[in-house]
Amino acid sequence: MRYITVALAKGRLAEKAMELFERIGIHCQEMKDKHSRKLIFVNEELGMRFFLAKASDVPTYVEYGAADMGIVGKDTILEESRKLYEVLDLKMGRCRMCVCGPQEAKERLKHHELIRVATKYPHIAKDYFYNKKYQTVEIIKLNGSIELAPIVGLSDVIVDIVETGSTLRENGLVVLEEVCPLSARVVVNQVSMKRENERIAKMIKGLQEILREEEQA
Ligand code: PRP
Fold first, then answer.
1. Which is the closest atom of ligand 1 to the Cα of 145?
2. What is the pLDDT of residues 109-133, one digit of tens each?
3. Domain carrying residue 153
4. Which of 39, 67, 96, 105 could form a disulfide with 7 if both were Cys (CB 3.0 to 4.6 A apart)?
């Protein structure tokens, strides 16, 4: 039997995803050893392999077929725009991609002025401003602590993830516009979807049933 390889975005998402897999009978004991330095974990019996990767690399592994499947946030899927199938919304890690800034920036957004936008997600920001709002903006790519940018005058607004909203609140910023809702998704390599259809479809169906049960509970 050929291995089915699953790439998981490192962190909280991976742990939650493994809990879901366990509920459909897919266990990976090896992964529970927190001290292990291993990068890839195998369940020989089920012919499954799991590995943890940086979230932004998960779509790359899946597009090239190094992983048959992946679990990653919609933000990363949109930003990376790789060729893959997005097959299931796991409804976990829910948050929103938003345009945020000081309240005063709201006016500038309305009047389609040339503004500066700082973000870790330049593709998402570009798509939103250019293709949905038809507004020309200057995009500045940052790698973290994006909320700093409008505070220190690097940009007028930011495009960033808002979960609880506390980072914004504590820094005197507000949500100005919502770009899109986000959550964790299951993605599948396009060739694997055909070649391993039976096994992959069974897993997706199992996960769907669990999600349905949870919704009804
Ligand atoms: C994310 C995001 C916001 C924050 C939102 O940052 O970029 O800064 O979480 O969460 P909240 O609405 O619950 O406050 P993360 O902590 O991932 O780190 P980063 O600043 O390095 O991107």
1. 20
2. 888 889 999 999 999 999 999 999 9
3. 95-181
4. 67
Residue 159 host element (H or E): strand 157-162
Position 26 scores a pLDDT of 93
| Distance from C-alpha of 24 to C-alpha of 35, rounded to nearest angstrom | 26
79 lines ligand 1 (CB under 6 A): no
- Assess whether the C-beta atom of 30 lies below 6 angstroms from ligand 1: no
**CA nearest to 193, candidates 74, 98, 68, 79:** 68
- Please give the pLDDT value at position 77: 98
Same domain, 134 and 36: no
Per the prediction, the chain carries an average pLDDT of 95
Average pLDDT score over residue span 94-117: 93
> Which position has the token pair 């592994």?
61
Q: Does position 29 have pLDDT exceeding 90, yes or no? A: no
Q: Is 165 in the pocket of ligand 1 (CB under 6 A)?
A: yes
Cα separation, 109 vs 111, whole angstroms = 6
pTM above 0.85, yes or no: yes
| DSSP strands (E only) in 22-107 | 40-43, 48-53, 69-73, 85-89, 95-101
Q: What is the tally of structural domains in the chain? A: 2
Ligand 1 pocket test, pick from 79, 119, 167, 175 with the greatest ligand atom count within 8 Å of Cβ, gives 167
| 168 and 208 both lie in a single domain | no
162 CA → ligand 1 middle, Å: 7
Does residue 171 have its Cβ closer than 6 Å to ligand 1? no
Burial class (CB in 10 A: 0-12, 13-18, 19+), 106: middle
